[in-house]
């Protein structure tokens, strides 16, 4: 059986981009706990046409 977790990562406000270094560190931290990225998508709430967050769905085998 699998378990899932949603992670909400904030993007840079003015550019609407993501700090890829910080994103990698965050995802590697979850990977150490056995989580794998299932999917990623920007949120629908926007500021000036840009997403505020990146929603990441993680999955792993349930212990």
**Residue share in helix:** 10-25%
Find the structural class using helix and strand composition: alpha+beta
**What's the tally of helices?**
1
Cα shape: elongated
Q: How many beta-strand runs?
A: 5
Which consecutive residue ranges, at least 5 long each, have pLDDT under 50? none
**Biggest sheet, in brief?**
3 strands, antiparallel
State the distance separating the first and last CA atoms.
9 Å
In short:
Helix content is 21%, strand content 46%. It has one helix at residues 20-32; strands at residues 2-10, 36-42, 46-47, 50-51, 53-61.
Give an overview of the whole structure.
The protein is of the alpha+beta class. The chain has one domain. The protein is 21% helix and 46% strand. It contains one helix and five strands; from the N terminus they run βαββββ. The protein has a three-stranded antiparallel sheet, covered by helices on one side. The longest helix has 13 residues, at 20-32. The protein is elongated and about 40 Å long. The N and C termini lie close together (9 Å). The mean pLDDT is 85.
Chart the SSEs and their pairings.
Layout: E1 2-10, H1 20-32, E2 36-42, E3 46-47, E4 50-51, E5 53-61
Antiparallel strand pairs: 1-5, 2-5, 3-4
Notable features of this structure?
21% helix; two-stranded antiparallel ribbon; alpha+beta; 63 residues; 1 helix; 5 strands; 3-stranded antiparallel beta sheet
């Amino acid at each position: 059986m699998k378990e899932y977790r949603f992670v909400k990562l904030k993007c840079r406000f003015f550019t609407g981009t993501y700090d890829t270094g910080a994103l990698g560190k965050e995802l590697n931290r979850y990977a150490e706990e056995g989580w794998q990225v299932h999917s990623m998508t920007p949120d629908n709430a926007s500021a000036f046409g840009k997403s505020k967050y990146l929603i990441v769905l993680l999955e792993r085998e349930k212990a």
